[in-house]
Amino acid sequence: MTTTNARRLPVTKAVVPAAGLGTRFLPATKATPKEMLPVVDKPAIQYVVEEAAAAGLSDILMVTGRNKRALEDHFDRAYELEELLARKGDQDKLRRVQESVQLANMHYVRQGDPKGLGHAVSVAEQHVAGQPFAVLLGDDLIDPRDPLLSRMIEVQQELGGSVVALMEVEPEQIHLYGCAAVKANGFGEDVFRITDLVEKPDTADAPSNYAVIGRYILDPAVFDVLRETEPGRGGEIQLTDALRELATRDETGGGPVHGVLFKGRRYDTGDRADYLRAIVRLACEREDLGPDFRSWLKDFVATEMQG
What we know:
Layout: E1 13-17, E2 38-39, E3 42-43, H1 44-54, E4 59-64, H2 69-74, H3 79-88, H4 91-99, E5 105-110, H5 117-122, H6 125-128, E6 133-136, E7 140-142, H7 148-159, E8 162-168, E9 178-184, E10 191-199, E11 210-218, H8 221-228, H9 239-246, E12 257-261, E13 266-268, H10 272-285, H11 290-306
Parallel strand pairs: 1-4, 1-6, 4-5, 8-12
Antiparallel strand pairs: 2-3, 6-11, 7-13, 8-11, 9-10, 9-11, 10-12
């Protein structure tokens, strides 16, 4: 059961839901988890785990499903490959292969039935053991130069309750996101009190253009609420609906809910076009790839414009 002092406990654990089928990327995801699709030369899921580790979250639970064994293998030792690279003296490739193993203490649990994000979070209850915890969605990659997660942890430790990441979007895009109604709370210009949450509202009904993106710090009271949450939009158990309930509570009931407004660099890999844009942006910024790639890209765009 939730305790009223849970908010005073440090945030040390992260939950990464990764049980989705990735139907928008078929046929590539027929046999390969969408989280393992490469973003330049690392799978998308590794960027997410690196972000959690950089924020001090060394204990990570990945919520998986059928045909997701590749995720576990990626964060495990590959003895034969490491031995081969060591014999060849290829220390650079060996270092890169070993990086994923050394990031954090990885744990895995299967979601079972695909009942939505809220249900995926609920299966982590035993692992987080009554502590506030982070949730990171694999479709959102946050640039490491913009430490969003660290700021969210700071806010949660100071104010308690739960914290969601917000981003301003164009009004015509808000129907793609959970949407927050907010008011100022005096804890910095980037922090708001959440007064209401709506999952993927119609543009005319949206309370704001503040979209909820895939980073959360959750009070363990969310599990009590999720047990009572009925399927919502899409017939799934929505995390947004549970947070909407917590937003009405004070700290003795696991509330309130705060939002941190993010204005940094975010790469969306959940959509095919945005996935390609993310690869281009990250490749352009790489010291080893950027100069040659930017030169080629400039020539390519110039040629296409002429055509």
